[in-house]
Design brief:
By secondary structure, the chain is mostly helical. The chain is built from four helices and no strands. The protein has helices spanning about 5-25, 30-45, 50-65, 75-105. It is elongated and about 60 Å long.
Length: about 110
Amino acid sequence: MDKEDALELIVTDVLEMLADLFQGGFDTVHTSTLEAMKRLAARADAYGMGQLGGLLSQLSGGLDARRHRVKKDEDDLAGIYTKLNWYVRLCKEKIENDRGVSYYEGGREI
């Protein structure tokens, strides 16, 4: 597995998790989803994607705190969610660009 494949796995997992959050909402997040988010944050950090890991940690912490509140106060979870979406979409573009460069410079098939 090359580096692009490894990063694409992380990015795809994050996109799927973001889609699940979009469909389910921020107020009914399951414990298993939060645990998966924390594992994704650790994987991202391990692959040198500290920004992604930090955003995932912020989102999981905010979602966990929100689950235990009766009164829904204003928070920045939507902003963090949006930053995550932009980040992973830009990562996908970068991965595809890197694959193209590797193909044309190295002559290997994708």
